[in-house]
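Predict the holo structure. Ligand: iron/sulfur cluster.
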Amino acid sequence: MIVGERKPLAEIAAMLKPFGKVCVLGCGTCVTVCLSGGEKEAAETAAALSLLWQKEGKKGEVKTGTMLRQCEYEYIDDYAARLEEYDAVLSLACGVGVQAMTTRLPEKIILPGLNTKFMGYPIEQGVWKENCLGCGNCVLDLTVGICPITRCSKSMLNGPCGGSQDGKCEVSKDVDCAWHLIYERLLKMDMLECMEAVQPPKDWSSSHHGGVRTMVREDVRLESGQ
Ligand code: SF4
Ligand code: SF4
C-alpha cells in the first residue's frame, strides 16, 4: 500500500489561508488502511481546522467527504458535482490521488493534506516499513523475497558491503542490513550457494531513473476492442 502521514495542522491552515469554503476529502483505500487519510481522519482534520479558524476569527466553512479512490477518473467523475461549491479541496489522498484529481478537475484547487511516504506494509500496529521502490524489474526471485533495491541503503544487487556489522546497516544501528537478512534466509532454506551468483549491473531504465514512466497494456485498453 501507499503509506502517508497527515501534514501538521498549522501547515494545512497556512495552505488554506486564502480560501473560505473548504472540503477536507478523505480517500477510501490505502490511506484509510494506513490510518492517515480516510473518512475518520478527514472528519478529525475538518473539526480541528474549524476550531482553529473559530479561534483565529477567520470566516469560513470546512466540510468533509470521502471518495472511494481519488486516483481513478471514474470515481472522481462520480464525485465531482459534490465539490463544486468549494473554493478548495484539501485532499488526504496520496500524491497520486492529488494529481489525478488536479488533472481531472483542472478548474479546482486541490491541495495536499498528506505527506506521501512510501510503498510498504504495517509490520505491527502503528509501524509501517518501506519495502518496494517500484523498480520495474523485480528481483525478489534472486533474493528469496527480500528486496535489496529498497531495503539495502545502497540498493546493491551483490551484497553485503563492507559496512554490514552484526546484521545492521552502516547507515544506522536501527536498520537491518538487507543482505544479512538475505543471507540468513538462504542459510535457513539451505540455498546458500545462491550468494555466490554474481548479478550483472541492473538496468535502471525500467525504474524512475529512466525518466517518468507510463505503462501501456494493449490487451486491456478499451481502444483495442478486446
Ligand atoms: S525488486 Fe523492484 S519491484 Fe521488486 S520489490 Fe524491490 S523495488 Fe519492488
Ligand atoms: S550494510 Fe547491508 S544494507 Fe547497508 S548498505 Fe551495506 S549491504 Fe546494504
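The beta strands are 2-6, 21-27, 61-67, 88-91, 110-112, 114-124, 127-132. The helical segments are 9-15, 30-33, 39-56, 73-79, 95-104, 148-151, 178-188.
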